[in-house]
Write a structure and sequence with these properties.
It is a single chain. The protein has 14 helices and twelve strands. The chain is of the alpha/beta class. Strands 1-2-5-4-3-6-8-7-9-12 form a ten-stranded mixed sheet, with helices on both faces. Helix 1 packs across helix 4 and helix 7 runs parallel beside helix 9. The chain starts with a strand and ends with a strand. About 2% of the residues have low confidence.
């Protein structure tokens, strides 16, 4: 006998032999997996018994075949949802997760859920995010396409490691676990394949206690065709592209904050020394042309820096980082600074304006007043950018929702468990 609980377009089906008070939830999205769902659920039961943990299996299903019926007969809960992406399946499932720990994967019997002891052990040791690694474990011959094994996964993993200063070996491994609390804090937004990168990079940004464990990756059972293959040869490339997009979007401050500071400093080094006229540095003479280059770099750098600050406040991964920028750019202080920069900039421009009028509205040669006025214009631009970005920064802070439970500040670590 089954009990169904409905909520909007979701329906939860509960088996008669339902598990009470599970410690672990095995959370699996499915789409027409009637060939493998039965053996897979048998593997889950074996894995739970070997690990000595009370667990439930929650299937998030959008199938048109008898996958949900088979799952119910094998004791799994089934959350029926419309077909709208694997990332959305995890989002839909969050209110229905009963376990303290969540283990994710695929129902195609490519990940060996008979061997979940390592995940359970790391959960009980205090890990908040556990990433499986096929490259540190075992990859059965012919189980992973060469394009994925030797190009796609290594390249995107290397990019994420570079952007976020991490040491993951396999960011696309489908077998991964996290505490329910961590899953809620991650606040998953991706609807499709990019969910995998979003989970990993947000775990880093939120400074979750992270560990990587080896897993076994097996060939698909005879007769099954993966979803990537079902959607055509272009689907792996599309999946890789949207994962890269997620890395760039959720880590956009990497491209803005420090590069902006570097451009700003470099620009000022080219502009400020020439404020009162050309400066000779050996065979190189810094003149008005060098100043214009420096000013361009400085303006680009300052705006990039401000955008990086705004992004950190908007994402609010670390309340400490967000509050740091709010404190640095306190409204009254930033407004006064903006006004002072504009006033100084105007003052620097006055000598050139006077000279211009005295010469009958003509400038015949470049002098000190030209250099001074150029940096005066730079100050006016700086004042305007500081004014505008301070407004945006505080407006973003007003509209940014606080994240659940602040993580401890400190270095991000990803240890390897054997």
């Amino acid at each position: 006998m089954l009990y169904a609980a409905a909520s909007s377009d979701l329906t939860l089906l509960i088996p008669t032999n339902d598990v009470a008070q599970p410690e672990l939830t095995i959370l699996i999205p499915t789409l027409n997996e009637s060939l493998t769902i039965g053996p897979f659920l048998q593997w889950c039961q074996i894995g739970l018994e070997k690990a000595g943990v009370t667990g439930e299996v929650l299937i998030v299903d959008s199938s048109t075949d008898d996958t949900p019926d088979i799952a119910l007969r094998h004791g799994a809960r089934v959350l029926r949802t419309p077909k709208r992406g694997v990332g959305r399946a995890y989002i839909d499932a969050i209110p229905y997760i009963r376990g303290r720990y969540v283990l994710m994967g695929d129902a195609d019997c490519t990940y060996d859920f008979r061997e979940i002891e390592t995940f359970v052990r790391e959960f009980r040791a205090g890990s908040e995010f556990i990433m499986g690694s096929r490259f540190n474990g075992y990859i059965e011959p012919h189980s992973m396409p060469a394009l994925h094994r030797y190009f796609g996964t290594p390249i995107t993993t290397a990019i994420l490691n570079f952007l976020y200063s991490t040491h993951f070996s396999d960011i696309h491994c489908g077998m991964r676990g996290m505490t329910k609390q961590a899953l809620e804090r991650i606040d998953l937004e991706s609807q499709s394949w990019e969910y995998s990168s979003e989970m990993v990079l947000k775990s880093v940004c939120l400074r979750l206690k992270t560990v990587e464990v080896p897993v076994c990756f097996l060939k698909e059972p005879e007769g099954r065709c993966s979803h990537l293959k079902r959607n055509g040869w272009l689907e792996p490339w599309r999946a890789g592209w949207i994962n890269l997009k997620a890395m760039f979007l959720y880590g956009s401050d990497f491209f803005l904050l420090r590069p902006g500071l570097i451009l700003l400093v470099l620009g000022l080094l080219l502009s400020l020394p020439v404020t009162l006229g050309p400066v000779a540095l050996g065979p190189v003479v810094l003149s008005l042309n060098w100043m214009l280059l420096g000013q361009t770099l400085a303006v680009l750098g300052l705006e990039s820096f401000y955008l990086g600050c705004i992004v950190q406040v908007l994402y609010n991964y670390s309340p400490h980082a967000a509050n740091r920028w709010i404190q640095l750019f306190r409204y009254n202080r930033a407004m006064l600074l903006s006004g002072a920069m504009v006033a100084c900039g105007i003052a620097f421009c006055i000598p050139l304006c006077v000279r211009y009028v005295q010469l009958g509205l003509r400038l015949t040669k470049i002098g000190t007043s030209n250099h001074l006025a150029a940096n005066g214009l730079l100050l006016i631009i700086f004042g305007f950018l500081t004014f505008c970005n301070t407004l945006v920064l505080h407006a973003v802070k007003l509209r940014t929702k606080p994240r659940l439970l602040t993580a401890e500040e400190g270095p991000v670590a990803c240890k390897i468990a054997s």
